[in-house]
Amino acid sequence: MTRVLLLGGTGDALRIARQLGPEHVYSLAGLGKVPDDLSCEVRVGGFGGSEGLARYIEDQRISLVIDATHPYAAQISANAAKASNAARVPCWALRRAGWQPQAGDDWRMVDDWTELTAALVAFKRPLFTLGREPLAHLDEIPSQQFWTVRCLDAREAHPRARILATRGPFTLEGERALFSAEAFDVVVSKNSGGNATEAKLEVARERGLPVVMLRRPALPAVDREFATVADLLEALQVSG
């Protein structure tokens, strides 16, 4: 019988986890809400790098690793591929397609934080949708800027930033209301793909706002890649 270790933390991963029975394991890094309505085992916390993950795979008699982590969780994906190889079990990955610019979009592509901040010099009211990374740079906010940072982490008030501790999905109507209230002049985003947070791009397009887009990192080769949850679940059912 296949015993799955599902590496998650995304909405897509939760959809997969809801289809897993008690013999399988859903692993979370410990960020955000831990689901309490799953039939499978839920594990919270790290493994200690690829070597620790390989030991866990062997100790728990895992026979398939599924990487359904965020497209920007490059280190976790690298550890999953390396550990699976070391433990001699297959590794599958759910890798949803990124967003593509459409007519009317003004995307400025960047590779790291240094390029990102350089691309923001001319703006005053950026909306950051990168997760928690901007929180480490609040003391570096340029004098002409006021940041809005949307992420899962709640933080104390900051004189030059507003922290929106919230989780998607975000509706088009909700995003329109937020953009109107805050008067953003640029959006900062990862190219996460999917529908949960795409509405901000549509509103940016409607309002003629540029988007500073962080490119996706390179991810390791795995035994099988899937573009959709449905395709992965179908393959999992066939594999037994």
TrEMBL record:
<dbReference type="InterPro" id="IPR003723">
    <property type="entry name" value="Precorrin-6x_reduct"/>
</dbReference>
<dbReference type="GO" id="GO:0009236">
    <property type="term" value="P:cobalamin biosynthetic process"/>
</dbReference>
<keyword id="KW-0560">Oxidoreductase</keyword>
<comment type="pathway">
    <text>Cofactor biosynthesis; adenosylcobalamin biosynthesis.</text>
</comment>
<dbReference type="Pfam" id="PF02571">
    <property type="entry name" value="CbiJ"/>
</dbReference>
<keyword id="KW-0169">Cobalamin biosynthesis</keyword>
<protein>
    <submittedName>
        <fullName>Precorrin-6A reductase</fullName>
        <ecNumber>1.3.1.54</ecNumber>
    </submittedName>
</protein>
<dbReference type="GO" id="GO:0016994">
    <property type="term" value="F:precorrin-6A reductase activity"/>
</dbReference>
